[in-house]
Specification:
- By secondary structure, the protein is mostly beta strands.
- The protein is built from one helix and ten strands.
- It has one domain: Immunoglobulin-like, CATH 2.60.40.
- The radius of gyration is 32 Å and the shape is flat.
Length: 143
């Protein structure tokens, strides 16, 4: 038997149940860091009015097969490009601001015939009007 309509309206309404949402806290992300630069070289000063490489910083003086590397070159503000040359190869460093150039990567596999030797790397800084400054750096190659 049904209750009269008036009796149904007088019945207490059950309270709504609220379930708290799960709070997800993201795991902290470590701040990126550069590898330490342990090989710092200050080349000789150029003639007055000429472009200059003021410092070369590398992750290590020993380059190892498959290892990461970082090279930073500081120059006079008029330099617009820096290249590195070794064993007939040449590559450009990326501009990172006025007077700052760099490159990072991983050393490719090193052939046995050049392993455990010292290689001369030539860095060349160039201005927009074609003036250059070059300096060399001794780097040990290991497998």
């Amino acid at each position: 038997m049904q209750k009269p309509a008036a009796a149904m309206d007088d019945a207490p309404t059950p309270a709504a149940t609220v379930t708290p949402a799960a709070i997800v806290t993201p795991a902290p992300t470590p701040a990126p860091t550069l590898m330490p630069l342990t090989y710092l070289v200050t080349p000789p000063a150029p003639a007055p009015g000429q472009p200059a490489i003021t410092q070369i910083a590398m992750s290590d003086q020993v380059v190892r097969s498959g290892a990461p590397y970082l090279v930073l070159v500081m120059t006079s503000p008029d330099v617009t490009g820096v290249t590195a040359e070794a064993y007939g190869g040449r590559f450009s460093l990326f501009p990172a601001g006025p007077g700052r150039f760099g490159v990072t990567g991983q050393v490719p596999p090193i052939p046995w015939m050049i392993a455990n030797r010292t290689v001369t790397v030539r860095f060349v800084a160039t201005t927009t009007d074609g003036r250059t400054y070059a300096t060399t750096l001794a780097v040990r190659v290991a497998r």
